[in-house]
Amino acid sequence: MTTRTEDQPPAATLRGPLQRFRIAAYVTGVGLLGLLVVMVLRYGMDMPGPSAVYSPIHGVLYMIYLVLTVDLALKARWSVKNAVLVLLAGCVPFVSFAVERWVTRKVTAGEKL
């Protein structure tokens, strides 16, 4: 079992940033699935309208995810490599859901990423 290192902040101090990250990861994951639907409509059915409306919304949601993930990464003192991997998880369908659960387990256990 991994124990909390002295340079890792206690999980209680990360409760707010973790909760914001979890919400952003979920919204980003759902948003990415929505983007897949509008891309199928755009390129598979020649319907560019939904994509023109939804794509900018998805972009804003992803930028919010980036900011909140960096906030948690800095406060939890993650390694740069793991922070980048978590940031990239918002680009792959379904991965943000799995990574959100992994990050939540690690942070609540007081383990460093």
UniProtKB/TrEMBL annotation:
UniProt KW keywords: Cell membrane, Membrane, Transmembrane, Transmembrane helix
Main location: membrane
Top-level taxonomic group: Bacteria
Keyword check for Plastid: no
InterPro entries listed in its UniProt record: DUF3817_TM
Pfam families: DUF3817
Subcellular location: Cell membrane
All residue ranges annotated as the DUF3817 domain in the record: 18-105
Keyword Signal: no
GO cellular component: plasma membrane
Bilayer topology annotation: Multi-pass membrane protein
Membrane-spanning residues: 21-41, 53-74, 83-103
The protein's name: DUF3817 domain-containing protein
Organism: Amycolatopsis antarctica
Organism taxonomic ancestry: Bacteria, Bacillati, Actinomycetota, Actinomycetes, Pseudonocardiales
